[in-house]
């Protein structure tokens, strides 16, 4: 998240910004801060669903809810309006892949993240071994009965 001061101004904490100064929010670091998350560097696939179970499924911990510790889709009045679409699309795609394919890295261990400007991605160059699951036609979004085409 980046903002450029259109005119010289002073923020609520006293920080003075001259006209034209860029301000960048370190969303990556905040998303991984122990101020907001337990063991933030540990991959925990059920991190947020556990919170939802604990607090009730009012969706407060849902992927589309921006928060001070979750800036993936921004926050405030310019938070990403496409996040509802993006969240459903990502879940559908992941569910389809998991139900229809087995895949693993060609080597061992987790690959390092890749950074492009202010974006962080999985290693898009990592070799992946992909195999279609033979039982996939009945698993999810199946085509005709018994077909794996
Ligand atoms: C995983 C996918 C996506 C991510 C991580 C993402 C992330 C973000 C972030 C962080 C912002 C706020 C930028 C800022 O405040 O400076 C933003 C804004 C925006 N996003 Fe997304 N986005 C995603 C998908 C989409 C999609 C699918 C659409 C449209 C269909 C979309 C449309 C927009 C628009 C129009 C804004 C500007 C909103 C404004 O300035 O008021 N985004 N996005």
TrEMBL record:
Name of this chain's protein: Cytochrome P450
Keyword annotations of the record: Heme, Iron, Metal-binding, Monooxygenase, Oxidoreductase
Alphabetical list of Pfam families matching this protein: p450 (PF00067)
InterPro entries, A to Z: Cyt_P450, Cyt_P450_CS, Cyt_P450_E_grp-I, Cyt_P450_sf
Family as reported in the entry's similarity comment: Belongs to the cytochrome P450 family.
Domain of life: Eukaryota
PROSITE patterns with a match to the protein in the record: CYTOCHROME_P450
Necessary cofactors: heme
PANTHER family: CYTOCHROME P450 (PTHR46206)
The UniProt record lists the keyword NADP: no
């Amino acid at each position: 998240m980046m903002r450029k001061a259109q005119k010289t101004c002073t923020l609520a904490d006293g920080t003075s910004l001259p006209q034209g100064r860029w301000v960048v929010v370190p969303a990556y670091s905040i998303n991984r801060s122990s101020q907001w998350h337990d063991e933030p560097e540990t991959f925990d696939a059920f991190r947020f669903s556990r919170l939802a179970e604990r607090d009730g499924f009012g969706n407060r911990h849902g992927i589309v809810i921006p928060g001070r510790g979750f800036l993936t889709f921004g926050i405030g009045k310019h938070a990403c309006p496409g996040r509802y679409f993006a969240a459903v699309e990502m879940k559908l795609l992941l569910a389809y892949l998991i139900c229809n394919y087995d895949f693993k890295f060609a080597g061992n261990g987790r690959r390092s993240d890749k950074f492009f400007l202010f974006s962080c991605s999985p290693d898009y160059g990592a070799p992946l071994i992909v195999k279609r699951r033979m039982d996939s036609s009945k698993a999810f979004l199946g085509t005709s009965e018994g077909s794996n085409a």
